[in-house]
Every structure is written in structure tokens, then in C-alpha cells.
From TrEMBL:
One Gene Ontology molecular-function label: N-acetyl-gamma-glutamyl-phosphate reductase activity
Name of the top EC class for this enzyme: oxidoreductase
Pathway annotation from the record: Amino-acid biosynthesis; L-arginine biosynthesis; N(2)-acetyl-L-ornithine from L-glutamate: step 3/4
Reactions the enzyme catalyzes: N-acetyl-L-glutamate 5-semialdehyde + phosphate + NADP(+) = N-acetyl-L-glutamyl 5-phosphate + NADPH + H(+)
UniProt protein name: Probable N-acetyl-gamma-glutamyl-phosphate reductase, chloroplastic
Residues annotated as catalytic: C216
Alphabetical list of HAMAP family matching this protein: ArgC_type1 (MF_00150)
Keywords per UniProt: Amino-acid biosynthesis, Arginine biosynthesis, NADP, Oxidoreductase
Protein family (similarity comment): Belongs to the NAGSA dehydrogenase family. Type 1 subfamily.
Ranges of residues in domain Semialdehyde dehydrogenase NAD-binding: 71-208
Record-level GO BP terms: L-arginine biosynthetic process
Pfam families registered for this protein in UniProt: Semialdhyde_dh, Semialdhyde_dhC_1
Length: 412
């Protein structure tokens, strides 16, 4: 039975004069569309947090009928990405968690695993095999790589699914087998999956039933590089990516290499020449230019819990300046809420996106003539995982893309 929100229960707001008429919708739940002329909230001079509430309330009020709550299932809720989904959903106006799975924690409450979520009214976790999907409209799948394919293939076709594992990111299943050391067990489903780098594939996501949520490194790398490659402003050759991530990117499983004494007061490279995000990055860049792109990519583990920086070195195309790169990225993301080009000379910092769904970018002139340095920072658990997953699900379910996602970064 669907749960309904009574319009009488909604708060009454007096819209600021600068916002009146700016929330035009063609609204029937499941197909909510923002006015194309509406700029991102942070660019209108209105507080994003209150505007997000106003926007969501306006969707409900103008729908002409009660809007149904979207019942959410989180598979793998006891991991970092699963718990982050739950944290973000706490402020969503219509998404409600009705199912959570965690095989090793079956029968436990999420608060017993993540005490910071003790205030949330949530169902106890169950094993996947015992899950009842009749009480669910949409699924966030936060299970480990290699375990997702058969589980998603067995789900009811009526469910919208965002998969946060790598199992459906690579279109070529032979590439999946090569990089993930096992045959893909749902190749027909792979053909259906849409790659969910939201700002670049929004229209495809809107029509999708199954979205493959991008990896964290590929998100930070592709957001600046794809537009520049498509505009032929940089060479597809000689791209070097020096990327650094906090420890939460490795997941919550106990691993000796991730013990405090192993990672504190130091930094180390890993996955040199063979990190599994390489084919995903190259797939996206190759798609952008229509011919094979090969990159040099080296990730590093740094002693912080969350955050990611990609420092990217590129060759400019003939006659192109660094200012051309800045101008193009500024134009590309001007109407995007979550991708921000910083003022000239300002260096992006992971501390300034912590806990948020934002990606901060900037471009700098290299001391080597004809080359540029791009810096991109995200929170690996939010824009690099759960936040982007919610962004995609909002689009798939017809909700404003920013719903539940306008938490500002935590600082210090």
C-alpha cells in the first residue's frame, strides 16, 4: 500500500519575490520537470537549503493530488556507502527507507552498527535472501563488486535500481572479466544499464531502469576532462592523473593495510598501472572523442577518512590557452548545482567539499609551455558514491535533482 503525504501537512511558505515564478513545473508525480530557465539555487542569491525545501514543497502542492512516498530499499546497508545513503535520505521529502539488507548483520538495527544514525526510524536489517521487495519502489544496491549481478537480475522488473558497485559500469563484459577476474553473470542486463555520471548523462538516466553509479576516481576525472575533450581543447594523448583518496574509499571491511598504524602519518601509492577504475575512466573519455583514449593513472591513499583530489596534467590543443579551458568549463557547468568552477587562482581543497555532493574545479597554467593542470575535488562517499546515487535516483523518480542533497560542506 502506498503511503501518501497530505497537502494539509505541508508547511506554508511565502516565496521570496525573486523566486516567484521560478519554480514552474509540468507536474505529475514520476515526471516532475524543472523549468529549463531555472538557474541552480546557489546562483540565485537565495539560501540553497531553504530553497530546496520550498522547491520540494512546491512540487507536492502543485501536483493537484497527494504525492506518493517512494519506498526505498538499501542493499548492503551496513557498509559506508549504504549508511551514507541513509544519512542523506534523512532530509529527503519523499524517499523513505522501508527495507535494508546486510547478511552478516541480519536482525540488527542500523543504529547498532552506525550509532550516528540512532535518531532515524528504520527497519531492522535482513539477509538479502529474506528480503520482501513487495514493499519497495526503488533500490540502492551497495553490495561488493562481483556479488551484485545475479541479485539485481533476480529483482522485480518494476523496481528502479541504482547500483553503486562496479558490476555494470563497463559496457564491454570482456573488459569486466579482465579487470575484475571473473565472468560477467548478467550480460543481458549489462546492455540495459545506463552509466550514471549525472551531469554528463542526465537524459539517459531519466529514462533508465538500471543505473550504474560511477566510481569515485572516474567521477572526479571525467567531470572536467569529458567537456574539454569533446570541445577539442586538449589532446587525448599524454593525459596524466595523480589522484588521492581518503581511507573510506577502501570500504569498511577489516584489512591490515587500512589499520591506523599502517596509514597514519604517511601516504602511499597503490594499484599502480592496474587500478580497476582505469578502464572506466578510459571508457568515458573514449566515448567523448570517438577514438581510444589511454591515460596514465596512479592513485594514492592518504590518512583522512573521506575526500578525494585528482590532479590532472593535459596537453593543450594548438592555439588554445588555459583561459579557454577555464571559460569552457565555466560555461559547461554554469547551470549545474553540484559542479563549481572556482574563481581564477583559487585552489580546490578536499576540506571544502567534505560531507557534500559538490565537485570543485579549477585550471592552472603549467610551467611547461602548452600544458595545463586541472584540480578536481569531491567527497568520495557523497559525489563519489552515495550522493551521486541519490542525484540519479531523484532524476529516475521524477524528483528535483537536488532533493536531500543540499547539505553544505562540513568545515573545519
Amino acid at each position: 500500500m502506498a503511503i501518501s503525504i497530505s497537502m494539509r501537512a505541508l508547511p506554508t511558505f511565502a516565496l521570496p519575490s525573486e523566486m516567484r515564478g521560478g519554480l514552474r513545473r509540468t507536474t505529475s508525480f514520476g515526471a516532475v520537470k524543472a523549468s529549463p530557465s531555472a538557474l541552480p539555487l546557489r546562483r540565485r542569491g537565495v539560501s540553497p537549503n531553504i530553497t530546496c525545501v520550498l522547491e520540494d514543497v512546491e512540487v507536492l502542492r502543485t501536483s493537484g493530488k497527494n504525492a506518493e512516498v517512494v519506498r526505498i530499499g538499501v542493499l548492503g546497508a551496513s557498509g559506508y556507502t549504504g549508511s551514507e545513503i541513509v544519512r542523506l535520505l534523512a532530509t529527503h521529502p519523499a524517499f523513505s527507507v522501508t527495507l535494508m539488507t546486510a547478511d552478516r548483520k541480519a536482525g540488527q538495527s542500523l543504529a547498532s552498527v552506525f550509532p550516528h544514525l540512532v535518531t532515524q526510524n528504520l527497519p531492522d536489517m535482513v539477509a538479502v535472501k529474506d528480503a520482501d521487495f513487495s514493499n519497495v519502489d526503488a533500490i540502492f544496491c551497495c553490495l561488493p563488486h562481483g556479488t551484485t549481478q545475479e541479485i539485481i537480475a533476480a529483482l522485480p522488473r518494476s523496481l528502479k535500481v541504482v547500483d553503486l558497485s562496479a558490476d555494470f559500469r563497463l559496457k564491454d563484459t570482456a573488459q569486466y572479466e579482465k579487470w575484475y577476474n571473473g565472468a560477467h553473470r548478467a550480460p543481458e542486463l549489462q546492455k540495459e544499464a545506463v552509466y550514471g555520471l549525472t551531469e554528463l548523462h542526465r537524459d539517459e538516466v531519466r529514462e533508465a531502469r538500471l543505473v550504474a553509479n560511477p566510481g569515485c576516481y572516474p567521477t572526479s576525472v571525467q567531470l572536467p576532462l569529458v567537456p574539454l575533450l569533446q570541445a577539442n581543447l586538449i589532446s587525448k594523448d599524454g593525459i596524466i592523473i595523480d589522484a588521492k583518496s581518503g581511507v573510506s574509499g577502501a570500504g569498511r571491511a577489516a584489512k591490515e593495510a587500512n589499520l591506523y598504524t599502517e596509514i597514519a602519518e604517511g601516504m602511499k601509492s597503490y594499484g599502480i598501472t592496474n587500478h580497476r577504475h582505469v578502464p572506466e575512466i578510459e571508457q568515458g573519455l573514449t566515448r567523448a572523442v570517438g577514438s581510444q583514449v589511454t591515460v596514465s593513472f596512479t592513485p594514492h591513499l592518504i590518512p583522512m577518512s573521506r575526500g578525494m583530489q585528482s590532479t590532472i596534467f593535459v596537453q593543450l590543443s594548438g592555439g588554445v590557452t588555459v583561459e579557454d579551458l577555464r571559460t569552457h568549463l565555466q560555461s559547461k557547468f554554469e547551470n549545474e548545482e553540484f559542479v563549481v568552477m572556482l574563481p581564477k587562482g583559487v585552489v580546490p581543497c578536499t576540506a571544502h567539499v567534505r560531507g557534500s555532493n559538490y565537485c570543485l574545479l579549477n585550471v592552472f597554467e603549467d610551467r611547461i609551455p602548452g600544458r595545463a593542470i586541472i584540480i578536481s575535488v569531491i567527497d568520495n562517499l557523497v559525489k563519489g558514491a552515495s550522493g551521486q546515487a541519490l542525484q540519479n535516483m531523484n532524476i529516475m523518480m521524477g524528483w528535483p535533482e537536488t532533493s536531500g542533497l543540499l547539505q553544505q560542506p562540513m568545515f573545519p
